[in-house]
Design goal:
single chain; 489 residues; mainly alpha; 2 domains; 0% strand; globular; transmembrane helix; membrane; transmembrane; DUF2029 domain-containing protein; glycosyltransferase activity
Length: 489
């Protein structure tokens, strides 16, 4: 692509994507509640169409920006700006954050006091969770409390302030994925396009202000720090620093602790490459060092203010009790239709999800992790292991939302990907974004099967698949051509 064509394409992508984001922001401002299917008439349909048209424009701009080099950050920033000045999009979670923050800031324990008692914030909490206590670890609660204080306890501005940590999360993710991609020999520009400029990521982290963004960002920094120190021949320091960051990520949101798997695998592989032993005692010793650091930080932060592990209380909201994209949660709801009380099903559903998750993570380690005596550390793929662990936790859990997969997406983006894999991720980004919008208006029982059918229709025909693969080719096309020209391909 010539410099002139590049500038023209960049201007087009920025303009179209920002217009789409602005339309979605306008819709979010006009329609702050999910559903309202009974009001779908006359002027009420207008705001909904704004959101749909806006999403189409944003996705089109993202796909058109695939060949750009050096403009990923600019497009992500411009597309995010309209999302910053509207109500949280496609989720009411930010209202729950404000309620929990208000409780902690006013001397209440969010693990003991329900969100529905959060003073001026209570009326904005989703009715599913108003009678439940907090499910997030302490660092999230302290951040939420700081945001409500910053907003002087104003209900509207407290919710809007939850975008501050979300923006910080986007910056951290952008820095971490580019560094990790470069260290892995992958394309940092492709990583930025897949994990930062992706509408699925922007809509949910910036638009929805989900704390998953900060959890993913800290987890990525843990991997980056540990691997960097190991490459500098300081593997034990890498395990301590990386492990401490893993513990911090876990106190933002629980899946962050899974980054310990990738950390240990990365450090072990690097240490073996530098001449250390590739044995089970060495691997177990490194795992124990990383785990000790992680547990120390997780326990220390949890002890602040006496909060502890209160998110495990029976009063905390259980994701298995509501419908989501999780097959386990859907099964619970279907059984509930027969007359069995849903609360009685929550315990068994949670236990099953934990067993499935553990089995899936073990499989991931057997597939990609180091196995001394069977598969050498040099043949392991720690980042693939990490992506698999994040995906396993999301898919096998008792609750699943599209934004739960952002961690796996961010890690995968740092790998050297085949065109087929990249095209599948592109299609996944489009479908995930559409699913988020569709679920705002309908049940996952309708939205998820529809998204699956659309995905199959867009992938199975050879012509359609070639279209997605052509986008994947353009994402890294210039890098591939440059490597071929230099004799590296």
């Amino acid at each position: 692509m010539t410099p002139t064509a590049h500038r023209r394409r960049l201007v087009e992508a920025v303009a179209v994507g920002t217009a789409g984001s602005a339309l979605m922001a306008w819709w979010a401002w006009l329609d702050e509640e999910p559903g309202h299917s009974e009001q779908l008439h006359g002027i009420e349909a207008g705001p909904w169409m704004l959101g749909l048209i806006g999403l189409v424009l944003l996705l089109a701009a993202w796909l058109r920006s695939a060949p750009l080099r050096g403009g990923r950050g600019l497009t992500a920033i411009c597309w995010s700006l309209p999302m910053l000045v509207t109500r949280p999009m496609l989720s009411l979670d930010a209202s729950a954050y404000a309620a929990q923050g208000w409780l902690l800031a006013h001397g209440h324990n969010p693990y003991l006091v329900p969100q529905g008692q959060a003073g001026p914030m209570a009326g904005h909490v989703d009715w599913h969770w108003s009678g439940t206590t907090a499910v997030y670890p302490p660092t999230s609660l302290w951040i939420q409390a700081a945001m409500t204080r910053l907003a002087s306890d104003d209900p509207f501005w407290s919710v809007m302030a939850m975008r501050i940590p979300a923006v910080v999360a986007m910056i951290v993710i952008a820095v971490a994925v580019t560094r990790l991609a470069r260290m892995a020999g992958a394309d940092p520009q492709a990583a930025m396009w897949l994990a930062v400029a992706n509408p699925l990521v922007l809509l949910n982290i910036v638009g929805g202000a989900h704390n998953d963004g900060l959890q993913v960002g800290v987890a990525l920094v843990a991997l980056w720090a540990g691997w960097s120190l190991a490459r500098a021949r300081r593997p034990w320091l890498g395990l301590i620093v990386g492990g401490a960051l893993v513990g911090l990520a876990g106190t933002v949101k629980q899946p962050g602790v899974l980054a310990g798997l990738g950390l240990v695998a990365l450090v072990h592989r690097q240490a073996v490459a530098d001449g250390d032993r590739d044995t089970w005692p060495a691997l177990v010793g490194r795992a124990m060092a990383g785990a000790t650091a992680a547990i120390t930080v997780f326990g220390g932060l949890s002890a602040i203010g006496g909060l502890g592990l209160g998110w495990l209380n029976d009063t905390a909201g259980s994701p298995a009790s509501v419908t989501s994209d999780s097959l386990i949660a859907m099964t619970v709801q279907v059984i509930g239709w027969t007359g069995v009380p849903v609360p009685r099903l929550v315990g068994p559903a949670t236990a099953i999800s934990l067993l499935l998750t553990a089995a899936a993570i073990v499989w991931c380690w057997a597939r990609w992790g180091p196995l001394p005596g069977r598969r050498g550390a040099a043949d392991s793929s720690p980042m693939a292991l990490q992506a698999g662990a994040f995906a396993a936790f999301a898919v096998c859990g008792a609750s699943l939302q599209p934004w739960y997969l952002i961690g796996a997406l961010a890690v995968v983006s740092t790998l050297r990907l085949s065109r087929r894999t990249t095209s599948a991720l592109v299609l996944g980004g489009v479908l995930g974004s559409g699913l988020c919008l569709l679920q705002w208006f309908s049940s996952p029982f309708l939205a998820l099967p529809l998204a699956i059918l659309v995905g199959l229709a867009a992938w199975l025909p050879a012509g359609a698949r070639r279209g997605w693969e052509s986008v994947a080719h353009r994402v890294a096309g210039e890098r591939v051509e440059a490597e071929r020209t230099a004799g590296l391909g």
